[in-house]
Amino acid sequence: MHSAWFKYLFLILPFFILGLPNFVVAQDDVTFELKLSKEKLGVNERLRVEFDMNRDGDNFVPPNFNGFQVIMGPSQSISSSFINGKRSFSKSYSYILKPKAQGTFEISQATIEIDGKTYKTIAKKVEVTAAVDNPNAPKTADDVADESLHLVAELSKASPYLNEAVTVIYKLYISPSISVTNFRPVDSPKYNNFWSQDIPVTKYNTLNTTYQGKPYRSVILKRVVLYPQKTGKLAIEPLTLEVFVDVPTNRRDFFGGKIYSQASKTVSAGQRTLNVKPLPEDGKPSNFGGAVGEFDFTVTTSKTDLNASESLQATVEITGQGNLKLFQLPEPDLPSALEVYEPEYSENVRTTPVGMQGKVSNNYTIVPSFRGKYPIPSIPFSYFNPKTGKYTTLNSEEITINVLDGPSDGNLNSGLSSNQRIVIPSGKQFHFIKVSPNLTRIGTDYFFGSKRFFMLLLGPLLLIPLVILIRNNRKKQAENVEGNRLRKANKLAKKYLSTAKKELGNTDNFYIALEKALHNYLKAKLKIETTEFSKEKITELLNKKEVEEQTTTQFISLLQNCEMARYSPLTIVQMQDDYNKASEVITLIDKQL
User: 511-523 pLDDT, tens per residue?
Assistant: First the structure.
């Protein structure tokens, strides 16, 4: 019996040996596939994306996931088995995606290298619809965050007049069931067609309130005052933030405390629209210069009695609340015998939640030429008061300048205005010049042969080597064009950044000073008012000046950092890094210009 089994085994053994290799290692062809948990989902749902392969590979490159935010992944899983003599292997990379908006999006190709060859998945389309209700599905941390965070833009008025102040307050409403750990701006409004001024929020105070009839906590994240520069319907772009929150779960830790899950949500204040009314034409004064608000108006002089050729200061000043920086001050009409210099403009204006407050003034230096009495006529100033909806005209008091001593102006009336006066010299303009000088004889000391003679003779010869040395050094410096540019640019950077350097460690003051330094540099270098331009306009101007694209990008990035610093705390190391980058980018722009 044993011999029969041995004989049978002997007969089949060659066939078993010949077929064993193929039986053990036989595998299917390489597959690399993209799998979606669903091809149609609501904007409030999540999408699971898997990239599966049946052979191990390297250098996996995922797609960009345009239109989605990756909230988890990549997570990798590997399984391997050997069943009935056949080896089975699978490997996958998976992602959890959150839609950013409604629409049709494409999950493009992913690539991987297997056995030296590159394999690609087939792209698939995903349709994202409006939010859907799914009451039976358990709520995730992201679902809770979606329901518990709301960003709202509150307007002080929806229908202002042209150049009337409007305050926009951005409030974040937070449900008591979650806690906010941090936030960062994703997109900041540009406020086109508005003069705008941010009011920094130095401390985030949380208040208990209600939102849509439910208890919430609210915190003010941003304040800005706007002055519309056009009439009609003007859109205020939305502020968009990414908020990071802790959401409690139903699980407990070893000590019985709640376990929290981290989540993030992108919230937007939504676009708001203002209906800007034009200023009424009925009752508009002819001298109206665009002032809107409530103001007081005065014209004063430093003195009224003086002599000819002495000077006095006349100040035209407007104080109050309104668009103080956005209109021209009235000008006095002075007699021609009073020489008037260009006025020095000064302002002391602060922006509060209700708008600009303070004063602006023009200071004129006046020098009379002749003795006499010269009246400064009353000056009218008109403004529109949005509270009453009417125009108001204020008139300054008439001032008389009494010139006590000086040359006569002949028979002309000194009070005539500049277009009526003809100035006739009296012939006494040069009476102060002495025509009988009192001269004395100089001493009898001889100059030639004296010590002073030899010092003046030999001194220049001794200075020749020093002059040659100085000239050579200047020549070397002049030839070193790049070095000179670098030194000049470094000095310029230190000049504009000196205030910011003093505020290192104080986040708000530092970034306000840094942003002002960057704008003042462009204002001085390109002769522009940078407050009137967006980042796109600044980029366009720098490109026209042939500044390198990388340098322009660094400059715009610094401006964005200044804006972002108002919403998230930064360390002294980050502030020092931004200061160094600002110094470097000003140096680069100055060299390239």
Answer: 888 887 887 777 7
Residues 6+ positions from 85 with CB-CB distance below 8 Å: 23, 24
Cβ contacts of 11-14, under 8 Å, gap ≥ 24: none
Q: What is the mean pLDDT of residues 453-480?
A: 75
With contact defined as beta carbons under 8 Å apart, do 196 and 225 qualify?
yes
Task: Indicate if 293-383+390-403 has the same CATH topology as 32-129.
Answer: yes
Query: Minimum mean pLDDT among 4-18, 232-246, 426-440: which range?
Result: 4-18
CA 1 to chain centroid, in Å, comes to 97
Residue 412 scores a pLDDT above 60: no
- CA-based angle 355:241:178, to the nearest 5? 110
The chain-wide mean pLDDT, for the chain, equals 80
Cα–Cα distance for residue pair 122/484, rounded to 1 Å? 58
Alpha-carbon span 539 to 552, nearest angstrom = 6
Q: Model pTM?
A: 0.50
The domains of the chain are located at 32-129, 141-276, 293-383+390-403, 481-592
CA distances from 301 to 206, 308, 313, 325, 398 (A): 51, 16, 6, 23, 11
| Residues with Cβ within 8 Å of residue 157, at least 6 apart in sequence | 164, 166
CA distances from 44 to 64, 76, 144, 189, 518 (A): 20, 25, 11, 25, 41
Q: Which class is domain 32-129?
A: mainly beta
Q: Tokens 């937070």, residue?
A: 174
Go through 533-561 and write b for each residue having 16 or more CB atoms within 10 A of its CB, e for each that does not: bebeebbebbeeeebeeebbebbbebbeb
Q: Which CATH architecture has domain 293-383+390-403?
A: Sandwich (2.60)
Flag the least confident range among 68-77, 165-174, 424-433: 424-433
- pLDDT band for 377, please (50, 70, 90 cuts): very high
Overall average pLDDT of the 11-17 stretch: 47
Of the candidates 383, 372, 378, the residue with the CA atom closest to the CA atom of residue 333: 378
Peptide bond into 74 cis (omega under 30): yes
Residue spans of beta strands (DSSP E) within 269-376: 272-276, 293-301, 305-306, 312-322, 338-340, 344-352, 355-368, 372-376
Give the Å distances, CA to CA, from 242 to 239, 301, 325, 556: 10, 56, 35, 21
| Distance separating alpha carbons of residues 36 and 58, to the nearest angstrom | 22
H-type alpha helices, 204-307:
none
